[in-house]
């Protein structure tokens, strides 16, 4: 596979297909268990790195931090993509629906607050 990390042609559909080819079969009682737990684990690793940026350097983000976070966020993206694949959901649909939802909330002035059905 060519390096498309800087290519405009590298979209969610391309990513999801490529990610699906890199997964290994894992024995669980349901196909969504592994990617769900992996997603939570990797999101926790992102949170841990951000926590240390604030704990150790009062929020000053270094190039090394950006690189480490880029790697961890890539892992988050991979597990999200795998979860979508196993649920039969296109990653691009998740992204598009999220933007539509946020634009609707913004137009109604309810971006802040809580509750899924704002």
UniProtKB/TrEMBL annotation:
<keyword id="KW-0378">Hydrolase</keyword>
<dbReference type="InterPro" id="IPR004518">
    <property type="entry name" value="MazG-like_dom"/>
</dbReference>
<dbReference type="InterPro" id="IPR011379">
    <property type="entry name" value="MazG-related_GP37"/>
</dbReference>
<protein>
    <submittedName>
        <fullName>MazG nucleotide pyrophosphohydrolase domain-containing protein</fullName>
    </submittedName>
</protein>
<feature type="domain" description="NTP pyrophosphohydrolase MazG-like">
    <location>
        <begin position="38"/>
        <end position="106"/>
    </location>
</feature>
<dbReference type="GO" id="GO:0016787">
    <property type="term" value="F:hydrolase activity"/>
</dbReference>
<dbReference type="Pfam" id="PF03819">
    <property type="entry name" value="MazG"/>
</dbReference>
């Amino acid at each position: 596979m060519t390096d498309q990390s800087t290519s405009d042609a590298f979209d969610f559909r391309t990513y999801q297909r490529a990610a699906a080819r890199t997964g290994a079969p894992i024995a669980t009682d349901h196909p969504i268990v592994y990617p769900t737990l992996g997603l939570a684990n990797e999101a926790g690793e992102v949170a841990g790195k951000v926590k240390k940026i604030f704990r150790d350097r009062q929020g000053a983000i270094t190039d090394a931090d950006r690189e480490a976070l880029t790697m961890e966020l890539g892992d988050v993206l991979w597990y999200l993509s795998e979860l979508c694949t196993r649920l039969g959901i296109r990653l691009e649909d998740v992204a598009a629906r999220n933007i539509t939802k946020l634009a609707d909330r913004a137009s109604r002035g309810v971006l802040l607050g809580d509750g899924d059905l704002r």
